[in-house]
Write a structure and sequence with these properties.
Blueprint (H helix, E strand, L loop, with lengths): L3 E7 L8 H10 L19 E10 L2 E10 L7 H5 L5 E3 L5 E3 L9 H5 L6 E3 L4 E3 L5 H4 L7 H5 L5 E6 L1 H11 L14 E4 L2 H4 L1 E11 L2 E4 L4 E6 L2 E7 L5 E7 L4 E9 L2 E9 L5 E6 L2
Parallel strand pairs: 1-9, 10-17
Antiparallel strand pairs: 1-8, 2-3, 4-5, 6-7, 10-11, 10-14, 12-13, 12-15, 15-16
Length: about 280
């Protein structure tokens, strides 16, 4: 089987420096690549963008960032919507919207469920991030976003499909919105930072009548009596349990240590709660 291009994006590594965004703009804004793409407009288009997600509640709050772009789906809705072969899937997995054949076909933009296809009003063509196919075809082994990223968010790899699936299983990689069945070739590591909830809190105990942090306390999270996850408090007595499905209902939490135990219960909605201070007794 043919080896195909895939992109792995590690959300945990992204700090929103936007070097990738600027690199894509530098490569495509004002530059025509015949057979691949017409020039990207200087304003209005974000072929690669950064999505922001805040989780938590004071004082335990975090912000995460997800680079988003065309997924180069194996079952691409844009290709189904196109007429006259305006969108083609290459044998190496890359999807190309032909800048000549696609002229006037705005339905290609509307067909993308990820919002990754843009309409160029001036030239009347749909456009997307082309996986820097023109660079890969000339011998590059990575896309410009990876080349520009200072924190190693991106990995451009070319593997057979079976090899890629094994790698995805080994590294816990996920695709965005798998329920759509589009089979994207952009994989995410640590996607839970954008899609799941966490619960956090602080455990303390009393030493000589003084309230102190309780490091090393054991924290167990249960739902309907079944253990879901566990954690150990850090030096400051804080804990965090992640990867909880939003809106998953009622949970019970127990913290324990040499000085006693503490329990609480909460309902998990769509936000990540901070449970406050739990005092062992």
């Amino acid at each position: 089987m043919a080896k195909k291009w895939n992109l792995i994006v590690d959300i945990e590594r992204c700090d929103n420096c936007r070097s990738c965004y600027i690199a894509v703009k530098d490569e495509h804004a004002g530059n025509d690549f015949p057979g691949y793409a017409a020039a990207q407009p200087a304003q209005g288009h974000h072929w690669l963008d950064i999505r922001r997600k805040e989780r938590g509640a004071y004082p335990l709050v975090e912000a995460n960032f997800q680079p988003v772009m065309c997924k180069h789906c194996d079952d691409a809705p844009c290709m189904k919507a196109a007429r006259d072969g305006a969108v083609q899937k290459r044998v190496d997995g890359i999807v190309i919207i032909d800048p000549v054949k696609a002229k006037g076909q705005k339905q290609i933009v509307d067909a993308c469920p990820y919002g990754a296809v843009w309409w160029n009003e001036e030239t009347q063509i749909p456009q997307h991030w082309i996986f820097d196919a023109h660079l890969l075809d000339s011998g590059w082994d990575k896309v410009r976003a990876e080349q520009a990223c200072p924190t190693n968010v991106f990995r451009t790899i070319r593997l057979e499909d079976a090899e890629m699936q094994r790698l995805a299983e080994q590294e816990g990689l996920e695709v965005e919105r798998p329920e759509l069945g589009t089979r994207p070739r952009v994989y995410y590591k640590n996607l839970h930072l954008m899609t799941q909830c966490f619960v956090g809190g602080t455990v303390v105990h009393r030493v000589g009548g003084v309230e102190e942090c309780a490091p090393g306390a054991h924290v167990v999270l249960r739902q309907a009596g079944r253990e879901v996850a566990r954690a150990t408090t850090d030096t400051f007595g804080e804990f965090k349990i992640d990867r909880l499905p939003p809106g998953s209902g009622r949970y019970e939490l127990e913290a324990s240590g040499p000085s006693g135990r503490a329990t609480t219960a909460f309902d998990l909605g769509t936000e990540s709660p901070y449970l406050g201070v739990l005092t062992l007794s």
